[in-house]
Amino acid sequence: MLKNRLTLVIILAFVLSVCLLALLPRVMSVGKATERYYAHTTEKAETELNKALQLIENGQGMQGILKLVEITQEFPDFADAYFHLGLASLQTGQYEKSVQRFLKAKDLSKNEDYSPFMETVFEGLEQGYTQLNLKKELVLLWQDWYQKLPERHPLKEKILDKMAN
């Protein structure tokens, strides 16, 4: 009886192994399909972003902004759309909205450290905080930005000067 159970367990283990090996290529192809989906999604989001920016550039600012809002709804993890909404909010004097949108872009950005994109996000946040007279948040922003900049970056000296004033 023990021998029969042992044989049955070995057979079941073998069948299970064969099934898992048969599924392995499908699991790997799902990973590649997911990569292709995200690449396509990013490409589509960038295409839509370019349409929105074209509207703004052609003097159809409100339609462009509405398009940007649609993009954030369809692609909620697309930092660039929040960034451009932040710029639009700054330009129209909606400083609270600009800060919210720049913070969202900062949080979504995959650039944890210094990059020209993050530099512009920080500058937008700085303008929004300054206009809203949020000095504590502004100092925290400068400290955060200072830490993200590479050693001996020219902005570090400017940030130290700002924090001193």
Beta-strand percentage?
Answer: under 5%
What's the name of the CATH homologous superfamily? Tetratricopeptide repeat domain
Name of the CATH first level: Mainly Alpha
Characterize the overall form: flat
Number of helices: 7
Report the biggest beta sheet as strand number plus sense, adding barrel if it closes.
none
Total number of beta strands: 0
Structural class: mainly alpha
- The third-level CATH topology is Serine Threonine Protein Phosphatase 5, Tetratricopeptide repeat
The rounded Rg comes to 25 Å
Number of domains: 1
Q: Helical proportion? A: over 70%
**Low-pLDDT residue intervals, each spanning 5 or more residues:** 26-31
Order of helices and strands: HHHHHHH
Summarize the structure.
The chain has helices at residues 2-57, 61-74, 79-91, 95-108, 116-131, 135-148, 154-164. It has 165 residues and is mostly helical. The chain has one domain (43-153, 158-162): Tetratricopeptide repeat domain (Serine Threonine Protein Phosphatase 5, Tetratricopeptide repeat).
Explain this structure to me?
By secondary structure, this protein is mainly α. The chain has a single domain, classed as Serine Threonine Protein Phosphatase 5, Tetratricopeptide repeat, CATH 1.25.40.10. The protein is built from 7 helices and no strands. It has helices at residues 2-57, 61-74, 79-91, 95-108, 116-131, 135-148, 154-164. The termini are far apart. 20% of the residues are buried.
List the topology elements.
Layout lengths: L1 H56 L3 H14 L4 H13 L3 H14 L7 H16 L3 H14 L5 H11 L1
